[in-house]
Specification:
Helices cover 36% and strands 16% of the residues. By secondary structure, it is α+β, with helices and mostly antiparallel strands. The strands form three sheets. Strands 1, 2, 3, 4, 5, 6, 7, 10 and 11 form a nine-stranded mixed sheet that branches. Helix 3 packs parallel to helix 9 and helix 6 packs parallel to helix 7. The chain binds pyridoxal-5'-phosphate. Pyridoxal-5'-phosphate binds next to helix 4 and helix 5.
Length: 388
């Protein structure tokens, strides 16, 4: 019996996840000491800006990623905002980042008073197209006095923010080389990539700074939360300072020595984070197992592939992505219809940033790769429990 393409996709998904019931796109898993640590936190009354879990969580993050310092923040967007400020991004600067990302990446740039400058993504990494960006910068950027400028707008090009989309590491080596050449600060958006390795090391290592997210749908969650990663201890100290209202330590006096933010992660959230991080290896393994099941289930389905990690990467497979062949792009809405109607929560990838009203007039390179991906990606249920 022949069946329609969307029905074939639905069948393959059901066969990979092994359940006939409703499935969410991504649900957290609390199977460790979450209750114990959160209860301990409540019992102590130190639920907010004082308490031991925040520092413990920061130390555990640094140890796990191998990045020297981690500074917890109230969410991933705030962490990225602080990372960009500490990268020297300010009003009137431009920041290069992919158009294919979650809106928070661009918002953090705008919070600095800077202008997002959108770059293309490639089909093999889902991240910034390094070769395309090299050609583009050769055309539009000029370096003088140790800084790059956009020839068209005259504004300084301050930083590049690669995003590790769905947990898959962008090809960081050529991007880092471009940053050297054009004196751009590399700031990694690792919101989705905790647990992913690029050439054997955790993402977050390659940038001067990086941002993580612990929102409820990410690899591990603190309810809401984020962190700044950096190997530069002076920057880490600055991050700690400005995320705590830039208050000078003193037994009673309130003296704030610069513009700071109330971006500190509450102790209650950090307690949850400590328990989650203890289980990250198991969570990543479960997600990789689920990805392998998707690959097997879709092996016989023509016209689409499950996005697979590059040979340079070991991905956390945060969110599995079905990539339709170009001639199947028109089936995307029908796949979303068929799956969601059946209780399988699927989602299209984000609308490209340059299509959103607040970023419509931002500078941008030609986005052929990103536009192709935007039309062809369907994200599949990826909760770690599905791979356990
Ligand atoms: C989740 C996410 C963020 C922001 O994290 P929040 O904790 O939700 O503020 C930033 N960038 C990307 C790519 C994300 O997926």
């Amino acid at each position: 019996m022949s069946q329609s393409f969307p029905q074939g996709v639905l069948r393959a998904i059901r066969s990979a996840i092994g359940t006939a019931g409703r499935v969410a796109l991504h649900e957290p898993s609390f199977a460790g000491r979450e209750w114990e640590y959160v209860k301990d936190c409540l019992d102590s009354t130190f639920v907010s800006s004082v308490g031991a879990y925040v520092e413990r969580f920061e130390a555990a993050l640094a140890e796990y990623t191998g990045v020297r310092r981690a500074v917890a923040a109230v969410n991933g967007t705030a962490a990225l905002h602080v990372a960009l400020r500490l990268a020297g991004v300010g009003p009137g600067d431009e920041v290069l980042l992919p158009a294919l990302t979650f809106v928070a990446s661009a918002n953090a740039v705008a919070y600095c008073g800077a202008v997002p400058h959108f770059v293309d993504s490639d089909e093999w990494t889902l991240g910034v197209d390094a070769a395309g960006l090299a050609a583009y910068l050769a055309e539009v950027a000029t370096v003088r006095d140790g800084a790059a400028y956009n020839r068209g707008t005259g504004r300084r090009l301050a930083a590049l923010v690669p995003v590790h989309v769905f947990g898959h590491p962008a090809d960081l080596e050529p991007l880092a080389a471009l940053c050297d050449q054009y004196r751009l600060v590399l700031v990694e958006d690792c919101a989705e990539s905790l647990g992913s390795l690029y050439r054997g090391r955790h993402t977050g290592h390659w940038g001067r700074l990086a941002a993580l997210s612990f929102n409820g749908n990410k690899v591990i969650t603190t309810g809401g939360g984020g962190a700044i990663l950096t190997n530069d201890t002076a920057l880490a100290d600055r991050a700690k300072h400005i995320t705590q209202t830039a208050k000078q330590p003193h037994r009673w006096a309130f003296f704030h020595d610069e513009l700071g933010f109330n971006y500190r992660m509450p102790n209650l959230n950090a307690a949850l984070g400590c328990a989650q991080l203890e289980r990250i290896d198991a969570l990543v393994e479960a997600k990789r197992r689920l990805a392998a099941r998707y690959h097997a289930a879709f092996a016989g389905v023509e016209g689409c592939v499950i996005f697979a990690e590059q040979s340079y990467a070991r991905s956390n497979y945060w969110l599995n992505a079905l990539v339709l062949a170009p001639d199947r792009a028109r089936e995307r809405e029908r796949i979303l219809e068929a799956t969601n109607a059946d209780g399988v929560m699927t989602r299209p990838v984000w609308t490209l940033m340059n299509r959103l009203p607040m970023y419509r007039d931002c500078p941008s390179m030609t986005l052929t790769g990103a536009e192709g991906l935007e039309a062809r990606i369907v994200n599949l249920p990826s909760s770690p429990a599905l791979g356990m």
